[in-house]
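Students often ask why we bother encoding 3D structure as a string. The short answer is that it lets us treat folding as translation between two languages. Here is a chain of 492 residues written in the first language.
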Amino acid sequence: MTSARSIRPRPRPRTGLRRLGVAGTALGALLLGLATAPPTASAAPVTHEAETATVSQGLAESNHAGFTGTGFVNYDNVSGSHVQWNVNAAQAGTATLTLRYANGTTTNRPMDITVNGTTAASAKAFAGTGAWTSWATTQITATLKAGANTVRATATTANGGPNVDHLTVDTATTPPPTASTPAAINGQLTVCGTKLCNKYGKPIQLRGMSSHGTQWYAQCLTGGSLDALAKDWNADVLRVSTYVQEEGYETDPRKYTDLAHSLIEQATARGMYVIVDWHMLDPGDPHYNLARAKTFFTEIAQRHGSKTNLLYEIANEPSGVDWSRIKSYAEQLIPVIRAKDAETPVLVGTRAWSSFGVSEGANESEVVSNPVNATNIMYTFHFYAYSHRDEYLNTLSRAADKLPVFVTEFGTQNYAGEGGNDFAMTQKYLDLMAAKKISWVNWNFSDDDRSGAVFKPGTCAAGGTWTGTGSLKPAGVWIRDRIRTADSFPTS
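And here it is in the second language, the structure alphabet:
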């Protein structure tokens, strides 16, 4: 975050001026989970969406019309891919299970349906429906026990399963949780004056975590880890960091756009807000990636623009360029996004690694006197408390009085995200941000060996443990405690 950054050499890929990553992604098997509420009987059939269930070897998507909920599950084309629902029955008995699906091929895609590990239907047919937008239903009869049950639909051929929309159970089961998540309470966000406001027009503060680069640490973004972030950490927001360079987007745009799609859907299913972070870092001139950014955000906005839980961060950390250069980039890219999505707030990076220019000898006055010519936007600020002291803190305070500001990245360590933690200085920042309702996201939700990554090394490869503090470094324990404190989301 300063104008003279350096990092010591390490025997793995370089991550620009601040971060190093471990090669290898786990794009193929991002799991989803669904927590069930305490049993309360309901006489009417209950629908359990596929995109909020546990998914193995498949992705939650929303690119074919006609689904219910927020999307559907697209099975990987392998035998053994599956979706598993947790179904809580008020009493034991026979139930009719109805699966809604689409199969745009002419080939049957059979699946085994098991209930509590016992086969209820072997190689159940899921014939072609004529198109991926044509949805059909099929039924089986099964016996449920009182309380918790699992229902799994597993592909039995190399073609995988059909696209599965939802499972409906005709007996008394517990409906999925409703209207208790940050995104459900606050709805579509807008910028009002210098604040981020919810659907009731009330200023709010979001608090959450940023992923590390998804080209290195997708294995840290599983169903279990995202469940923990949403339900154990009580996070409001996940920042999905799509690096442009450094083995990222530019090497395989399709792969990393699809990964962003999947993570957006998974965070949405858990009721969190999502910052879609275009993580440009080196080169520091955002114009270098303008064409790529237009392509990426056009597709993201077209597919997800109808959602009410997104924010678009269009330039992570510009550096080495004047504010006018960043402003012109934003004024070319924002209209491209607005052509597909007129409502989602856009977050604009500021000069000198999003420090309002402090790391290059400037300050917020250049933005105050020459703001981006666009509406419903905020400006980003990043800090690392061990390195960035009162000059940065005072800049953030002054800027937030005149501009809408979102702290989309910070750490308790030095500007490289490593070394000792300065929790006292970080708390000064957190107190300021609470007082002025500045939303914030901490760097980062991974097991990188630096002290700024919340998990101990090896946690992600081992598949957790994700909940509690046993797998967390000191910074992870500290920041989790501060995210877990009660939110204040005014609704009237």
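Translate back mentally: The two ends are 39 Å apart (CA to CA). Keep this in mind for the problem set.
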